[in-house]
Amino acid sequence: MRILLGTDAWHPQTNGVVTTLSNTVRELRAAGHVVHILSNRDFPAFPCPFYPEIHLCLPDAQIIEQLLEDFEPHHIHLATEGPIGLAVSAICHRRGIPFTTSYHTDFPAYLHTYLGVPPAVSYPFLRWFHGKAAHTMVATSMVQGELERHGFKNIVRWSRGVDTDLFTPAEPPTHDRPVLTCLGRVAAEKNIEAFLELDPGFPHHKRVIGAGPMLETFRAKYASAGVEFCGMLKGKALAERLADSDCMVFPSKTDTFGLVILEALACGVPVAAYPQPGPVDLLTNPAWGAAHENLEVAVRLALALGHRDACREKALHHSWQRCAMQFLGNLVPTQRPAARPSPIRIPLPARAAAPA
Fold first, then answer.
1. Each residue of 318-356: pLDDT tens digit?
2. Is the CATH number of domain 179-315 1.10.3470.10?
3. What is the pLDDT of residue 36?
4. Which among 79, 81, 127, 186 is least surrounded, fewest beta carbons within 10 Å?
5. Which are the contacts of 283, defined by CB distance < 8 A and separation ≥ 6?
6. 179-195 pLDDT, tens digit each
7. What is the C-alpha separation between 259 and 19, in angstroms, rounded?
8. Dihedral angle over CA of 53, 118, 260, 311, nearest 10
9. Domain with residues 2-161+319-330, CATH architecture
10. Which DSSP state fits 89?
């Protein structure tokens, strides 16, 4: 089948949305499907005013119209609510072409954090955007319930995966004091300072893996406290550093899933978190970690009850292949003609580099 994926989040961004889409696309292509990525790399782009690491684009409707004519997708999925999602949605709505969307980011919380926009303003926009879709895919039951309380319809589940070949257990750590690791973007919406300020009541070492706009601020503020800031790590270096932890602390209250939770579990590391989407759905067994309103209590529970083998076993049930097949099952046909004998190769506009 030919699948058109429209997204405002794509490489070189490093975040959970890009990781999810990249792995899903890889699995779909491995299964023989043709996936065309329409992203912000295909049009002139500019940094988001309040989040410069994210680039927004100015989509060309004629290019999108021509893509739909030439590629003739059997399915269209819009992963984000940005300019790409809005442009493709408008064209599909005008042509009467069904499509699906997904809800990856807690935009009401983000907009409130950065711009002070109340959720009562942002939710109607999101409900309007996703209301045009045949299905809106969400990662957890908690997110589904929250959106349904705000009037969202036709919600289906699309879970996440983890690379269990990359993220693997190491020898159990033999630190003289527990190492508490926080993995994620060092930004205001990730609530990293709750991790940096926590005191579980026993000697410990804090480690932060990740980069972001608050990194240097936190480095300066917590230098005297001995916090280890590793910066951005990828691949084997990331997996090894994560596995060399006694507990992974996930302080975010704005994530809709938290892929790093699965990465920690795959390394055999129990997780401590607030009872938010992701932790509530994943940490249902005390052997995997704990979700508690008091983060210090969650850390103590995770260290006392977490079991490395049990954590690993939990992660093994979340493959990217299973994630991709669930995504595929949620798609709806565009009511286009049957598949052609061979896929069509669609060149991107000359001004853009082909996405990875």
1. 999 999 999 999 999 998 544 444 444 445 444 444 444
2. no
3. 98
4. 127
5. 261, 271, 273, 289, 290, 291
6. 999 999 999 889 999 99
7. 9
8. 180
9. 3-Layer(aba) Sandwich (3.40)
10. H
Decide: 35 and 29 in contact? Cβ < 8 Å: yes
Q: Regarding beta strands 228-231 and 100-102, do their DSSP bridges make them parallel or antiparallel, or are they unpaired? A: unpaired
Query: Rounded CA gap, 246 and 269, in Å?
Result: 6
For residue range 265-302, what is the model confidence (pLDDT) as tens digits? 999 999 999 999 999 999 999 999 999 999 999 999 99
Cα dihedral 190, 166, 244, 209 sign: negative
Domain assignments of the chain as residue spans, ordered by start: 2-161+319-330, 179-315
Give the full edge-to-edge strand order of the sheet including 247-250.
228-231, 205-209, 179-183, 247-250, 271-273, 289-291
Position 235 scores a pLDDT of 96
As a whole number of angstroms, the distance between CA 78 and CA 64 comes to 13
Closest CA to 100 of 71, 62, 138: 138
pLDDT tens for 65-98 read: 999 999 999 999 999 999 999 999 999 999 999 9
Q: What torsion do the CA atoms of 92, 93, 99, 101 make, to the nearest 10 degrees?
A: 110
**CA gap 312, 138 in Å, rounded:** 24
Residues in the chain: 356
- What number of other Cβ atoms are within 10 A of residue 236's Cβ? 11
Q: What is the dihedral of CA 184, 188, 189, 195, to 10 degrees?
A: 60
Which of 158, 144, 143 has its CA nearest to residue 255?
143
Identical fold at 2-161+319-330 and 179-315? yes
**pLDDT tens, 136-165?**
999 999 999 999 999 999 999 999 999 999
What's the number of CA atoms in the CB half-sphere (13 Å) around residue 249? 32
**Quick one: CA torsion of 306, 308, 313, 317, rounded to 10 degrees?**
70
Distance from C-alpha of 55 to C-alpha of 58, rounded to nearest angstrom: 10
